[in-house]
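FIELD: query
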Amino acid sequence: MASRSRIRSAKRTGSSPVLNRLEEKMKTWIGIDNGVSGSIGVLSEANAPQFIHAREYTRKNTKKKSALEVDPFALLILLQNSRPNGIVLERPYRGAYRTTEISAATFDGVVRTVMELYSLPFIQVDSREWQKPLLGTVPAGETKRASAAKGMLRWPSLKEQIEDHGDADGLWMAAYAMRLFP
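FIELD: result
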């Protein structure tokens, strides 16, 4: 039988030991769209899907006032609170602009370090690896538009956030994580 203090504690926090055990058994998957303009998608058996814009886990670089960088503490709290079964992280973009490559690689390094230090299960993939099976064949240059359009159909409760951001890549990567970490 549960002790009175445990029952009172559960009432105060709004949860119960039984619900906590059920939530621990429920699976959660995360997709991280790399970069300071990216997003994080969280899909869970226990909760509604979540779309988290990069501005929630980035901060201004103190040395470069116009630049953003990942805030490792905000990212860690976000990831640990989700208790993921698996995370898919997109490899950094290798584009035409050197500053873009440096920013993406720096962001990637911080994110991977946080996940490795706290033993969070993750795999890193190229964008084509998740886009083809989840979005189908999409013409070059149209992947963001296809990601947004198909994402609003699949996750209608997040339509406004997806429209505002311009794609649902983080959510699609979380869906891909579901396949890799069953």
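FIELD: remark
The mean pLDDT is 83.
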